Amino acid sequence: MSEQKDIDWYNLAGLGIIGGLACIYVAYILDAVLGVTYFAFLGALGAILATVWGADAVRRICKFGIGTGVPSIGMLAFGMGLLSTLLGLKVGDYLFAHGLSTAVSNIVIAQLIGPVVALIVSLIMGAIVGYIAQNVIKMKIPTMQVGMTMIAGAACMIYLGYIMAITGGAFDYTNVILKVMNTGFIAPLFIVGALPMLHAFNACMGPDEFQKRTLTLAIEASSMSVVIFGILSFASSKIIPPVAAAAQGVASTPPVGINVALLGVTTGNLSSQAMITSVLTVVFGLIVWAYAYLAYWRKVKESGVTIMATGLIPKKEE
Amino acid sequence: MEPLTLLIIVACIGLGGLLVGLGVHFVPVGGAPAAMAQATGIGTGTTMLAASSGFLGLISAGLVTAEITNGKISYPGFTNAVDSQTLLSISGITSNIGAIAIIIAAGVIGAMLMISILCVVPNVLYIFGLGVPLASAKVKFDPLTGDRQDIYVTRGTEGHGTPSVAVISSLIGGLLAGIGGALTYLALLAGGFSIATAAFAAIGIFFVNSVLASYNIAGTIEGFHDPKFKRWPRAFVGCLIASVVLGIWAAAIMFLGA
């Protein structure tokens, strides 16, 4: 299979960054302009594109053997990405609260800044950790510096995409804390979000590993994650911020505990719009999964070899 | 928020990450060969070890935080200090030192408990299930008990199970990493993060440092008696830089108003 030509990883980085950001923005803008939340599944599509990017970067780093197993690098990426992503979203939130609250046909300009800042901060973090791994810890892996930058960026885009799927189309700081963090959905996001990125190479590695099959598996695995986050979004869309709850007249008891200024109010009923949004995400995930599964099956068949039955080895040489 | 408090928070996260990175060097990580009783140590990678002991440490630290908050353990002033984000200012530390100490102790107990379970329970399986003696291939005599090791190591393998010295070493690792994890969690909580956010940001920092440290030991180590342990200064520098940078990101979020 060595005659297969690999896609350059900078092209895949372009796919992850531009495709991921474009999906998130298109979903947000369409939702805001039309006044609906149905396009949250586009965020999940962005996460799938970012997973392809991340899986390729993982593949190119781990080909050299990192000695600790492939999963460690996915966890490292998501560990780096979490605070960076939150910081980026917080910057957007801060700009919104301090001056930049202009909205063009319901599109809040300040919120659009968040994902870009999150991506930039993550890339910086990845470059720093890549530098540490290469020059301080001396791992002697030529692709380490660039690769680590890429997986941190991919982790950030995956976070953003799945955050959008879970919250039903929102990625502002308040909603993220409310619907993803405080509900505890960050735990599956951390593990199930990282899994497609690291699992693809972990499952396919070996002497006849080739890029297209690995990346097809990444798409297959990430579409399963989309289904899971679609299911979670049923629960998260019942939670609304305290301000919105007061506006809607939902009775709320003041939350008890510490640092609960941002705790939301759970309303018992699920609006039909939120339900359709979640169903769309789940269905989208299932369709992509079915297609990617069949594609992966074909790739496995292609690279499989026929085993000839030769019988047992004779006891004595003639 | 006061600049000094933010500085203390960054310092706490940096110190916490550093302790996690050092703690990993003490834990006998065996990897896949150890799972087949072909190498000394716990039969899984650093990622899983960090996840299991880190999660249990955080659960116990979080439990004690909740007990303090709802008054079962009496430390009046702790809740107010966290809510007003002055827990890690100088006056906050001095007046709440008891609460801080008990939360860190809870984190240490959780991490040490999990790591000792992971060391001792597989040993039962190795001894009675696989029928192998516990032996280290890196030293001829156990540095603590003085037991002979090399004659019990099967040819072609690098030891079996988790011998005494490695268990003691793992407890030291659990102690350091437990302090580190609890300190990180407390620093994030004091900065105004909600409990869940603080817990998962702490898990993220925990993962970064444990994976960087495991890159330093190239996957497997037996404990403080292993020759690879001498590489710790590299992880010291690496983890310090990485966790201080992550601490700065966290402080930036707090500065903008978490």
Compact overview of the structure:
The complex is a heterodimer of chains A (318) and B (258). Chain A is mostly helical and 318 residues long. Chain A has helices spanning 9-34, 40-62, 71-97, 109-136, 144-167, 173-181, 186-204, 211-236, 242-248, 272-303, and strands at 103-104, 107-108, 239-240, 265-266.
What do you see in this structure?
- The complex is a heterodimer of chains A (318) and B (258).
- By secondary structure, chain A is mainly alpha-helical.
- Chain A has one domain.
- Helix content of chain A is 69%, strand content 3%.
- Chain A is built from ten helices and four strands, in the order αααββαααααβαβα.
- A two-stranded antiparallel ribbon of chain A has the order 1-2.
- The longest helix of chain A has 32 residues.
- Chain A starts with 8 loop residues before the first helix and ends in a 15-residue tail after the last helix.
- The mean pLDDT of chain A is 85.
- Chain B is an all-alpha fold and 258 residues long.
- Chain B has one domain.
- Chain B has nine helices and two strands; from the N terminus they run ααααααββααα.
- A two-stranded antiparallel sheet of chain B has the order 1-2.
- The longest helix of chain B is centred in the middle third of the chain and has 34 residues.
- The model of chain B has no long low-confidence stretch (mean pLDDT 87).
- At the A-B interface, α3, α4 and α7 of A face α3, α4, α8 and α9 of B.
List keywords for this structure.
heterodimer; A: 318 residues; mainly alpha; two-stranded antiparallel sheet; two-stranded antiparallel ribbon; 10 helices; 4 strands; globular; B: 258 residues; 9 helices; 2 strands
